[in-house]
Specification:
Layout (H helix, E strand, L loop, with lengths): L10 H44 L10 H21 L5 H16 L2
Length: 108
């Protein structure tokens, strides 16, 4: 059994296919950028954590006592995310390029 030859898509269908492929690549790149930024935020939060572990602010007028100690790690992680969202220190860009390189190697 032989299969019939595949004819090229008409112009409009071919353009629609190209447009869909571009959108898929763009969505993949956007997801990679978001993942890289998230990674930088977590890394910065982890790097900031020791700084806040050594600062004792519970004995001043603005200290939060036990509740502040409970939520300090969450606050520090959010600080890291905000630093990354506002430009960061360059970790996200390196991770982003590495993700794209890995995607190209895998053919995705």
């Amino acid at each position: 059994m032989t299969l019939p030859a595949v004819s090229p898509l008409p112009g409009a269908q071919n353009d629609a296919l190209d447009d869909a492929q571009r959108k898929a690549r763009s969505a993949s790149a956007d997801k990679a950028r978001e993942t890289a930024e998230s990674f930088e935020g977590l890394a910065l939060g982890e790097l900031l954590q020791p700084m806040f572990d050594t600062a004792d602010v519970s004995d001043n007028a603005f200290g939060g006592g036990a509740a502040e100690k409970q939520f300090r790690s969450l606050q520090v992680l959010e600080m890291g995310k905000q630093i990354a969202k506002n430009g960061g220190v360059g970790i996200a860009e390196s991770v982003y390029r590495q993700i794209l390189a890995m995607q190209e190697q895998s053919g995705s």
